[in-house]
Amino acid sequence: MRSENEALAEWIEGIAKKFIDESPENTLKNDANEKAWDEPLIGFSNGSDPLYQFYKESIGEHYLSPAEIFNHAFPAAETKSEQLTVISWILPQTKATRTEHRKRQVVTERWARSKIYGEEVSLKLGRHLISALDEAGYKAVAPATSPLWNYIPPFQISKIPTASNWSERHAAYAAGLGTFGLCDGLITSAGKAMRCGSVIAQIQINPSPRPYADHHAYCLFYAEGTCGKCIERCPAGAISKEGHDKAKCGQYLFQVERQYIKDHYGLEGYACGLCQTGVPCESGIPVRR
């Protein structure tokens, strides 16, 4: 017999999967009205997980904890960290988008649309989950739409070159959904070609198991010293054996890819993602030797 905790987890997972499977909002907004994302992966972490304090210490004091974001949205609640659950999701790229992108050395239209319009889908999924939780009597907030969310320019108050004050990938890592690769992308059971999001809710759900102890566990380069395919795939030369140069990557995105997307596809926005396709971790966790 399922516990109430397990039932809540399945209920939330069902809401998310039904939205992505059935909602007309899940669209690339192209002529064929293709879906932006395949079936999502869902994971849970507790607001008091020590990882969130570790993120604040290693990224910078500007980095927000789940409780800081939640209590800003609901100040009267005075909610403690352990009373919160961070609901994380992974939205995998469709096979059509991955296949097309894998064959190219420049950003494809499907991929550009998945970044521009697909991010809208993720935000709408967050609002949909918040609405369902609210109807059931649970308060919730999406960090991505919180007025606290901010992007910190290089080296202002962050210990790393560029950083936002909430990371969807780091929340997903805490929820057992994946580990980081050489290019900083999150390698999940559905692969690295994906986007992710989260909602923080005042609800008690057991944290998802983390089947890894190392934040690079699924990356063949770190695990075995092999692969490095993402180095070859990066048109900006922003990935090397030393890791991911965020400044060089960002410069290429904003100065080159943004203009390419506008000139070739008539879209306003930026995207690249070549390091997420044509690599062993494109659509799953790569097999070690």
> Largest sheet, order of strands side by side?
1-2-8-3
Average pLDDT: 94
- Fraction of helical residues: 25-40%
Beta-strand content: 5-15%
Largest sheet: 4 strands, antiparallel
- Radius of gyration from the CA trace? 19 Å
Give the helix tally: 9
Describe this structure in words.
This protein is an alpha+beta fold. It has one domain (4-276). 38% of the residues lie in helices and 13% in strands. The protein contains 9 helices and 10 strands. Strands 1-2-8-3 form a 4-stranded antiparallel sheet, sandwiched between helices. Strands 4-5 form a two-stranded antiparallel sheet. α1 (4-22) crosses α5. The termini are far apart.
How would you concisely characterize the structure shown here?
It is built from nine helices and ten strands.
Topology:
Elements: H1 4-22, E1 41-46, H2 50-59, H3 66-73, E2 85-92, H4 95-102, H5 109-135, E3 140-141, E4 151-152, E5 163-164, H6 168-174, E6 178-180, E7 186-188, E8 194-201, H7 220-224, H8 229-233, E9 239-240, E10 243-244, H9 246-265
Antiparallel strand pairs: 1-2, 2-8, 3-8, 4-5, 6-7, 9-10
Key features?
alpha+beta; 10 strands; 38% helix; globular
